[in-house]
Automatic annotation (TrEMBL):
The keyword Methyltransferase does not apply. The keyword Cytoplasm does not apply. Residues 3-92 form the Muconolactone isomerase domain. This is Muconolactone delta-isomerase. The lineage of its organism: Bacteria, Bacillati, Actinomycetota, Actinomycetes, Kitasatosporales.
Length: 100
């Protein structure tokens, strides 16, 4: 599987009822857990004081990432994404068992 650094910013349409926002956010938490369990969502961070997320995601390729991973997020229709494919750096001090 390849690895991707993904920045996600959610922009809720102004006319969206709060109940719809709450439902989608609850469903988003469930789906994120499912994607983590299947190895697609590796890590997820929120920069201090900001409402965007930065995550390390895995997929076979960018098409799968968009269609079968990110595209299945309940908030996806409201998200703006920046995707960067990444690979291990030769000087990475992290685990040696990289899967990218």
């Amino acid at each position: 599987m390849k690895e991707f650094l993904v920045e996600l910013t959610t922009v809720v349409p102004e006319d969206t009822p709060q109940a719809e926002v709450d439902r989608r956010r609850a469903d988003e938490a469930v789906r994120a857990g499912e994607l983590a369990a299947t190895g697609h969502l590796v890590r997820l961070w929120r920069p201090v004081g900001e409402l965007r997320s930065i995550g390390l995601w895995r997929a076979a390729d960018e098409q799968e990432l968009y269609e079968k991973v990110l595209g299945t997020l309940p908030l996806w229709p409201w998200m703006v994404s920046v995707v960067t494919a990444v690979q291990p750096h030769p000087n990475d001090p992290g685990p040696a068992d990289h899967t990218a």
